[in-house]
User: What shape does this take?
Amino acid sequence: MNLILPTPPADLETAYFNPGFLRLSNLNWLNLGFIVAMHAGAVAAPFFFSWSGLAWMVGLYCFTGCLGITFCYHRMLTHRGFRLHPVPRFFGHLAGALALEGQPFFWAMAHRVHHARSDQPGDPHSPLDGPWWSHMLWLVQRRDKKSRDLLVEKYIPDLKRDALCRFFEATYGWWNLGLAVALFVGGGWSWLLWGLCLRVVFVWHMTWAINSATHIWGYRTYETTDQSRNLWWVALFTFGEGWHNNHHAQPAAAYHGHRWWEIDTTGWIISACRLLGLASEVREPKEGRQAKNAA
Assistant: This one.
C-alpha cells in the first residue's frame, strides 16, 4: 500500500504557523501546563478575595495590558508608530514582560508575520483556521527553534539590534519570578492569585480576543484584504486595540481610533507623552487611506 504524505508547506511562515500540525504528539506541554495553571489560579482567586488584591489586579491589568502590550510591544516595538524616551521605554518593556505573553522577540515577530500574512496561509492566528486556534491553540503547538530563529532574523532585525530589547529578552523570566515573590510576601495568596493569576488571565483573553473576535465580528471602515473588523467591546477592554480594521488599514499609525467616538486610551497616553516631550516621530493616521497589509 502506498503511503500518501501531506504536501509540505511552501514557505517558512506556513510551516511554522500551521494548524495542521496541531496534534497530541506535537503539543508544547510547558506552554499548555502554564496556561492551565494560571487559569486554575484565576478560578481560585475569588476564594481569597481582598480589596487590596483587587486593587493589585486592576492596577497591574492597566500597567501590563495597556503600557506593556498595547503601548510598548504593539505600537512602539512591532509597528514603530513612535519613538520613546529611554526612561518610559524601560518601564514599557518591564510592563510588557510582566504581561506574561512571551519575550519581546517572539511577540513582535509573530505579530509582523500576522500583518504580512493576515488571514492567509502562514498567519499565526487566523480564525479561518478555527476560532479556538486563533484565540489560544496556536500558542500550544510545539515548534522548532531553528525556524523561530530564521523568522526572527527575517522579521525583526531592528529589534535584535536594540540593546534594551535584548536585555528584556534575556531577563524575561526573572522579572516575573520577582513579581510573584513580591506579591506573595506582601499579601499572601490573595495578592498572588489576584495580582498575578487572575490579572494575567484577563490580559491574555483580551489580547487573544483581538486575534479571534476582531476577525469575526464588528464593522469595517476600510476595505482590507483580510477579515479585520472594529469591535467596540474589545476596544474598551484592550485600551483601543479593538479598532482592528483601522489598524490593519494603517498598521504603522500610532492611533487606532479614527473616528471621534472610537475611544483609544493608548492613543491618549501617546499624546500625553508627546506633549511632555517623551515621545517623538509619532505617526498619525491618514484620512481616507486604503489598506495595505504590511507591518
Notes: Residues 1-8, 290-295 have pLDDT under 50 and may be disordered. The first strand starts at residue 83 and ends at 84. Residues 163-212 form the longest helix (50 residues). Residues 12-280 form one domain.
